[in-house]
Write a structure and sequence with these properties.
The protein is 36% helix and 30% strand. It has 348 residues and is an alpha/beta fold. Bound molecules: adenosine-5'-triphosphate (ATP) and magnesium ion.
Length: 348
């Protein structure tokens, strides 16, 4: 649906050149929700503005449905841009216009007939569940309601793509959830392709099919959300995951030699990670009995990553070196990812 090939964008300021986006290639498939995550200044907004050519990259190609937008004439580009709606952190609504007029505005620009506009805006007001606020002004709405109006406006002329630049960053967690639910709903119902930029891992984890991680203008890691989440390669990705993942607190405990993680000679501290919920407690007691190993949980946690439960356990195993090894092998054979975090003196 969208394909970026070797896209670079440099800004010239008075004092220096800023390489905001460096040689980025990625592909976003029709109908998916694609996340772009990165810390402030990583180049996320610039990259997304390169998708709809609000910024023109100085090199590379930007394909929308196999048409390179950089080859389009001005009038062709106008048509292509209408296939992409965009929403922002600060909503960008017209303060002097009502909810109804804000949503109707892009259609007026496109010279839709009055009755068609009326019909479409009504549909959208139903979609965002704000029919009764149609005559309110933006200042009379909550942040979540404003973002719903912005979404309706972005979807007014039935685009194929919705670009969201930090659309939930100004909202509290509960309101964020309602906006994410709405985005998921339009993605499913309308088959809309959605690109979400965010610095919140929780957002990516909940809604995205694929994710690209940006650092210093580059995409340093990308893949389907469950693989990136369960097997992050880059430091920056691990940092993002740790922001939503309490279980990695263990690193801190180990660094401080906390009493919880101090080991006896015949003990080993292990991190286990598994997909799907059915691997946890019964398996642990089975393994414990079968291999004569005691297993004490330090942390246990199940995260739901895009509808897939990911279990994480940190546990202290007590037993002979050979028994612990057999127990770990049993977990590995069952598809559990095993990481040894710390060993007692008698454990090799
Ligand atoms: N119009 C501009 N002129 C000069 N420099 C710019 C311009 N727009 C962005 N930059 C610079 O490009 C880099 C990337 O900025 P960008 O806004 O894309 O980052 P971001 O990842 O969206 O950050 P944030 O999370 O804070 O929104 C930054 O160093 C920024 O200062
Ligand atoms: Mg930004």
């Amino acid at each position: 649906m969208i394909r970026l090939e070797h896209v670079s964008k440099t800004f010239q300021t008075k004092t220096k050149e800023v390489h905001a986006v460096k040689d980025v290639s990625l592909e976003i498939e029709q109908g998916e929700i694609f996340g772009i995550i990165g810390f402030s200044g990583a180049g996320k907004s610039t990259l997304v503005r390169c998708i709809n050519l609000l910024e023109r990259p100085e090199s590379g190609a930007v394909y929308l449905e196999d048409k390179n937008l950089l080859d389009c004439s001005k009038s062709e580009l106008r048509v292509e841009r209408q296939k992409m709606g965009m929403i922002f952190q600060n909503f960008n609504l017209m303060r002097s216009r009502t909810v109804y007029d804000n949503i109707a505005l892009p259609l007026k620009h496109l010279k839709w007939p009055k009755e068609a506009i009326e019909k479409r805006v009504n549909e959208l007001l139903d979609l965002i569940d704000l029919q009764e606020r149609r005559d309110s002004y933006p200042s009379q709405l909550s942040g979540g309601q404003k973002q719903r109006v912005a979404i309706a406006r972005a979807l007014a002329n039935e685009p194929k793509v919705l670009l969201c630049d930090e659309a939930t960053s100004a909202l509290d967690p509960q309101t964020t959830q309602t906006i994410l639910d709405l985005i998921k709903e339009v993605n499913k119902k309308l088959g809309l392709t959605v690109v979400i930029i965010t610095h919140e891992m929780a957002v990516v984890k909940e809604v995205c099919d694929h994710v690209a991680v940006m650092e210093d203008g580059r995409v340093v890691e990308q893949g389907d959300i469950v693989s990136v989440f369960t097997n992050p390669q880059q430091e920056v990705t691990k940092n993002f995951i740790n922001t939503t993942n309490n279980s990695r607190k263990i690193d801190e405990l180990i660094a401080n030699n906390h009493a919880l993680v101090q080991l006896k000679e015949n003990q080993m501290l292990v991190h286990l990670q598994y997909q799907s919920a059915n691997t946890s407690d019964p398996v642990i007691s089975t393994v414990s009995r079968k291999y004569n190993v005691d297993i004490n949980l330090v942390f246990a946690n199940v995260e739901i990553v895009h509808d897939c439960p990911i279990g994480q356990i940190e546990a202290i195993f007590t037993g002979t070196d050979a028994d612990i090894k057999s127990a770990l092998q049993f977990f590995r054979d069952g598809g559990v990812k095993v990481e040894v975090m710390k060993r007692g003196k008698f454990i090799s």
